[in-house]
């Protein structure tokens, strides 16, 4: 009987959605678009309006609007299903010479592919976005497409091509941004140009942009910027064999990277300090710097090609000392690191991956193991030095900075939203309900408030009828009060309370962040980790695992 009720309820919900879409057929495209934007916080309602927009476009045979509708479906549906809608949007858009939305679609398609490590395909879509936006005079799309194309060119080793694109973007930025936004874009652009010039051995030009960027960033709130310019200039001086100047520049960055929790750039700083100290024959200090770089790498899961040199140098140091245990340890670390890089970037840059001679490293590892087993018998065959070019120093640092900034902003939005909900809850106004006396309504609202304050919603087995019984009322009254005063049905009301509770707990209680997702779900009153994760994402815009990672990076302990 219970199963039959569930099926009937599902059918009723589907019928309501269909009825809602039919009722929306008289709405104009602009009205539907406004509704889509107004309901960005509610995925299910927003999708109703998107589907209504799509149906209307099909009925009117309006190809521009149809392309727009498929684009919106592609944006709001998760990967990989999003790609089929974006494909439809592009196919329709390519058939319309005047379609000014085609560049937006291509750009969004590129982002979807890029975020899922399909770099070569993403590159093609960014090129298409650039070509179409240039022909239509859409400078903002050209700018964003350029940024991604240049970044992918850097990964593939085409630094000269990347440099030309960054120069183009420096001119576009002046017409697109003003004030602090322009300053931010100029700082990013200077970093990218300095690194690109560094990689094509144009050291004077690299110094020029490092100085421009450092001067512009000195009074900027984000203290990472001046440190990055100093780091890149230090690497620049190292390549010119001006080791003292390189050391003086890089050593100044250490405290800033530690303070900002920037473990990637801190690892770069320690790596080059170690290389400078080796050049000056100070082996002990050089090894200490490399060990600091190794520790910094352990605090960040990101894999950046050049930082593999940390493992390589530590391996070679212990190989010369004939310390077989440590030699084997760092060689194993190097192989695992290179395997991770190969898996991530093989599609985009086979040439770069060919530099990672992993089979030879594996042979070396086996030789070390054999040597350890045979006690002091040196049978190591040796491998040719694995040279990793200066790849992705600032490019990946910028990529990490941009991505970190996005999630930090999202985290701030969640915290602000929780504070706002608390304020709005205090301002809730009583609304009269037909069939319920004012006295009964006051009593239910008071008991609901106590229910929320005591966190009784964390009972995973709680039902509408069960809560109604606890509050000494009936299910019908309680359902009406929740629907009108909380603006949602009972199930969503419970989920919302639980997600808000556990979000606050994760922010202020560092211990809970170390729980498994399943344990956190139980803590929040959910029986299923999958249901919890989905509800968390619907409410906060990111999965709990990503949220915890951002809290850890930001070092919140509220």
From TrEMBL:
Can you give the residue ranges of the HTH araC/xylS-type domain? 442-550
Q: Which residues form the signal peptide?
A: 1-20
Q: Which residues cross the membrane?
A: 382-402
Keywords for this protein: DNA-binding, Membrane, Signal, Transcription, Transcription regulation, Transmembrane, Transmembrane helix
Q: Which InterPro entries match?
A: Homeodomain-like_sf, HTH_AraC, TPR-like_helical_dom_sf
Q: Gene3D superfamilies, per this entry?
A: Homeodomain-like
Q: Write down the Pfam families for this protein, in alphabetical order.
A: HTH_18
SUPFAM superfamilies per the UniProt record, alphabetical: Homeodomain-like, TPR-like
- The protein depicted here goes by the name AraC family transcriptional regulator
Which organism does this sequence originate in? Croceivirga thetidis
């Amino acid at each position: 009987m219970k199963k039959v009720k569930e099926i009937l309820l599902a059918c009723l919900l589907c019928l309501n959605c269909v009825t809602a879409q039919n009722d929306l057929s008289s709405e104009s495209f602009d009205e539907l678009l406004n509704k889509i934007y107004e309901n960005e916080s509610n995925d299910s309602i927003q999708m109703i309006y998107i589907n209504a927009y799509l149906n209307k476009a099909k009925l009117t045979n309006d190809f521009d609007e149809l392309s727009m509708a498929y684009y919106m479906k592609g944006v709001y549906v998760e990967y990989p299903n999003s790609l089929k809608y974006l494909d439809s949007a592009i196919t329709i858009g390519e058939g319309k010479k005047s379609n000014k939305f085609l560049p937006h679609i291509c750009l969004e398609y590129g982002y979807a592919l890029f975020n899922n490590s399909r770099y070569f395909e993403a590159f093609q879509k960014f090129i298409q976005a650039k070509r179409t936006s240039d022909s239509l005079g859409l400078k903002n799309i050209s700018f964003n497409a350029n940024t991604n194309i240049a970044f992918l060119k850097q990964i593939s080793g085409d630094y000269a091509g990347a440099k030309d694109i960054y120069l183009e973007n420096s001119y576009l930025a002046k017409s697109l941004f003003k004030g602090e936004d322009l300053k931010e874009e100029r700082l990013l652009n200077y970093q990218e140009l300095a690194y690109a010039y560094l990689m094509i051995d144009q050291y004077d030009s690299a110094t020029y942009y490092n100085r421009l960027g450092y001067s512009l960033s000195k009074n900027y709130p984000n203290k990472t910027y001046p440190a990055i310019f100093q780091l890149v200039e230090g690497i620049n001086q190292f390549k010119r064999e001006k080791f003292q100047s390189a050391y003086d520049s890089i050593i100044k960055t250490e405290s800033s990277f530690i303070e900002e929790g920037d473990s990637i750039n801190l690892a770069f700083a320690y790596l080059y300090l170690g290389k400078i100290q080796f050049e000056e024959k100070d082996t002990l200090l050089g090894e200490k710097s490399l060990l600091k770089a190794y520790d910094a790498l352990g605090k960040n899961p990101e894999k950046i090609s050049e930082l593999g040199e940390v493992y390589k140098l530590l391996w070679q140091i212990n190989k010369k000392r004939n310390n077989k245990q440590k030699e084997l340890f760092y060689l194993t670390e190097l192989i695992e690191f290179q395997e991770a890089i190969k898996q991530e970037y093989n599609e985009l840059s086979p040439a770069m991956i060919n530099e990672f001679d992993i089979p030879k490293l594996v042979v070396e590892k086996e030789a070390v193991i054999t040597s350890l087993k045979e006690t002091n018998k040196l049978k190591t065959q040796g491998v040719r030095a694995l040279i990793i070019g200066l790849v992705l120093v600032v490019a990946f640092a910028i990529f990490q900075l941009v991505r970190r900034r996005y999630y930090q902003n999202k985290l701030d939005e969640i915290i602000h939203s929780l504070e706002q909900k608390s304020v709005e809850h205090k301002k809730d106004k009583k609304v009269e309900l037909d069939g319920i006396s004012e006295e009964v309504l006051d009593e239910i609202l008071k008991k609901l408030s106590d229910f929320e304050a005591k966190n009784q919603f964390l009972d995973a087995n709680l039902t509408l009828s069960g809560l109604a019984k606890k509050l000494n009322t009936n299910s019908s009254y309680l359902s009406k009060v929740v629907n009108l005063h909380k603006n949602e049905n009972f199930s969503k009301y419970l989920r919302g309370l639980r997600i808000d509770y556990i979000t606050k707990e994760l922010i202020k209680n560092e211990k809970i962040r170390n729980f498994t997702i399943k344990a956190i779900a139980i803590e929040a009153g959910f029986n299923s980790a999958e249901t919890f994760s989905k509800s968390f994402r619907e409410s906060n815009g990111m999965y709990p695992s990503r949220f915890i990672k951002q809290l850890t990076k930001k070092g919140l302990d509220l």
